[in-house]
């Protein structure tokens, strides 16, 4: 994924620093509670929400089972509509394809729609290495880019910033990227939005190349769909002469009828709206209207490997609504940067290790970045059982080995033997009861567990001995 995350520490280490950041925790608490409360009210308006949720799950499952067929159908439809389809096995190939397409136009700058896929592959950095400037146009992404920062939320990438911080970023950095912020800029939402509008307007009007992702791709017609709330995406999708869309292969849905389900569930789960203000849909190219050249880059980058895992593949149902982040007690306290990925929160804890593998320290730690409370599963609009996948991935990490895991497996094996031999268990219980005053309060090797927990005191006698005395 993005090179900006290379070298990040494991989740526990990063989270330990984050929880001591008072401003970060205040920003996250206010934002996540506000969004999730609004979402709950929006969802409650639909009497058939449970049925829609199940329908979304089944549509995604059916699509994933026959993904090869639907992708071929999509390619045919896009090509017949005047577009060109490219297949990218990994981030390096996708970045090369996009860079070559931009250079072929002779341009050296592009405007971008908010896109998780392009963040995943580190496209901005790859284009910069080729001498191409990529300008983010989503307001939150603009804040992150100007602040030389990393996104920390799927829906609201700058959720970790408050209005005062945003004003300072605009005042200090806008001038070096284009039109400077107005003098005397305040931190009111209206003035901040106006400063962003003026800054971006000149970029929209001169841009010849636009880059986007997509929320969905409709296989039967070759149509791509982007939901957004600001209108900046609409500008990127309609004004440039060339449009390049980088989309994960799991974003395909078979038909327009299937899309109808997600038109109801995604807006309510993400922005708590009945419908997004801007729903942009495009199919290939049309003479004298919109981009005259359209390229679709279909991105694998670990998705095929994820698809092969019968338990883990449900992560590919994700429609990037971010509802799971807003209810997660771990995310609320640690923030998105601690996850070391463009996919933070509960969904990131199961998606990133599968896309990237669990060989690195950060990816091996992500399945443990959860209390397994299940709140994420309850709000997921496509019913991804995130706790189930977390436990499944923890098993994989444990099987991978390492000193700690070897000790754990040895302890479990020993416990299994004792539990299968009642006489040995009884003897152990008697010894433990009679030597309880000698027991350390924190057993060696269990510091990570006992640092925030107290071990129960052993009773003077075991239940087995009590039973013999009182029930025989």
Walk me through the structure.
There is one protein chain. This protein has two domains: 3-303, NagB/RpiA/CoA transferase-like (Rossmann fold, 3-Layer(aba) Sandwich), CATH 3.40.50.10420; 408-470, no CATH class. The chain contains 23 helices and ten strands. The protein has helices at residues 11-18, 22-44, 49-65, 67-80, 91-105, 116-120, 123-129, 139-146, 163-177, 189-206, 232-238, 256-270, 303-307, 323-327, 329-334, 345-356, 361-365, 375-379, 386-400, 403-419, 422-434, 447-450, 463-470; strands spanning 84-88, 109-112, 133-136, 209-212, 216-218, 223-228, 242-248, 252-253, 278-283, 293-299. Strand 5 and strand 6 (223-228) form a beta hairpin. Helix 9 runs parallel beside helix 10. Keywords: 4Fe-4S, Electron transport, Iron, Iron-sulfur, Metal-binding, Repeat, Transport. InterPro entries: 4Fe4S_Fe-S-bd, 4Fe4S_Fe_S_CS, FTHF_cligase-like_sf, Helical_ferredxn, LUD_dom, LutB/LldF, LutB_C, NagB/RpiA_transferase-like.
Estimated structural class: alpha/beta
> What is the radius of gyration?
26 Å
Mean pLDDT: 92
CATH level-4 homologous superfamily of the largest domain: NagB/RpiA/CoA transferase-like
Q: Assign the CATH class of the largest domain.
A: Alpha Beta
pLDDT below 50 for ≥5 consecutive residues: which ranges?
none
Question: Order of strands in the sheet with the most strands?
Answer: 1-10-7-4-2-3
In total, how many domains does the architecture comprise?
A: 2
Question: Architecture of the largest domain, according to CATH?
Answer: 3-Layer(aba) Sandwich
Shape: globular
- Number of beta strands: 10
**Describe the biggest sheet?**
6 strands, parallel
Strand content: 5-15%
InterPro entries: 4Fe4S_Fe-S-bd (IPR017896), 4Fe4S_Fe_S_CS (IPR017900), FTHF_cligase-like_sf (IPR024185), Helical_ferredxn (IPR009051), LUD_dom (IPR003741), LutB/LldF (IPR004452), LutB_C (IPR024569), NagB/RpiA_transferase-like (IPR037171)
Protein name: Iron-sulfur cluster-binding protein
Domain 4Fe-4S ferredoxin-type: 315-384
Domain Lactate utilization protein B C-terminal: 394-470
């Amino acid at each position: 994924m993005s090179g900006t995350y290379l070298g990040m520490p494991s989740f526990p280490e990063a989270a330990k620093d984050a929880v001591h950041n008072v401003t970060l925790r205040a920003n996250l608490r206010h934002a996540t509670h506000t969004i999730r409360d609004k979402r709950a009210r929006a969802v409650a308006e639909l009497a058939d929400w449970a049925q829609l949720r199940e329908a979304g799950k089944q549509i995604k499952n059916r699509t994933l089972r026959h993904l090869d067929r639907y992708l071929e159908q999509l390619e045919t439809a896009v090509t017949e509509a005047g577009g060109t389809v490219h297949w990218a096995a990994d981030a390096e190939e996708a970045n090369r394809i996009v860079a070559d397409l931009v250079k072929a136009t002779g341009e050296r700058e592009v405007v971008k729609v908010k896109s998780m896929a392009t963040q995943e592959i580190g496209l901005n950095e790859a284009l910069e290495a080729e001498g191409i400037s990529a300008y983010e146009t989503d307001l939150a992404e603009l804040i992150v880019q100007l602040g030389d920062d990393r996104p920390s939320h799927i829906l609201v990438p700058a959720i970790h910033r408050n209005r005062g911080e945003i004003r300072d970023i605009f005042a200090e950095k806008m001038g070096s990227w284009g039109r400077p912020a107005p003098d005397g800029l305040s931190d009111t939402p209206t003035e901040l939005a106006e400063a962003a509008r003026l800054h971006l307007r000149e970029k929209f009007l001169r841009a010849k190349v636009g880059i986007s992702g997509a929320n969905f791709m409709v296989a039967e017609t070759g149509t791509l769909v982007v939901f957004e709330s600001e209108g900046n995406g609409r500008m990127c999708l309609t004004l440039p002469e060339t449009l390049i869309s980088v989309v994960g292969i799991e974003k395909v849905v078979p038909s327009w009828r299937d899309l109808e389900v997600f038109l109801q569930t995604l807006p309510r789960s993400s922005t708590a709206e009945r419908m997004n203000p801007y729903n942009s849909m495009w199919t290939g190219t049309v003479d004298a209207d919109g981009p005259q050249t359209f390229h679709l880059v279909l991105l694998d980058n670990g998705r095929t490997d994820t698809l092969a895992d019968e338990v883990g593949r449900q992560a590919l149902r994700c429609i990037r609504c971010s509802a799971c982040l807003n209810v997660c007690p771990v995310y609320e306290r640690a923030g998105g940067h601690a996850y070391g990925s463009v996919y933070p929160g509960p969904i990131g804890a199961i998606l990133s290790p599968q896309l990237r593998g669990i060989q690195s320290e950060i990816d091996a730690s992500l399945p443990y970045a959860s209390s397994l409370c299940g709140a994420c599963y309850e709000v997921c609009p496509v019913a991804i059982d995130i706790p189930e996948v977390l436990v499944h991935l923890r098993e994989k990490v444990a099987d991978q080995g390492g000193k700690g895991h070897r000790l754990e497996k040895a302890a479990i094996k020993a416990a299994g033997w004792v539990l299968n031999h009642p006489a040995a268990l009884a003897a152990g219980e008697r010894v433990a009861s009679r030597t309880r005053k000698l027991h350390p309060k924190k057993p060696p090797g269990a510091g990570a567990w006992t640092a925030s927990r107290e071990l129960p005191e052993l009773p003077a006698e075991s239940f087995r001995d009590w039973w013999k005395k009182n029930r025989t």
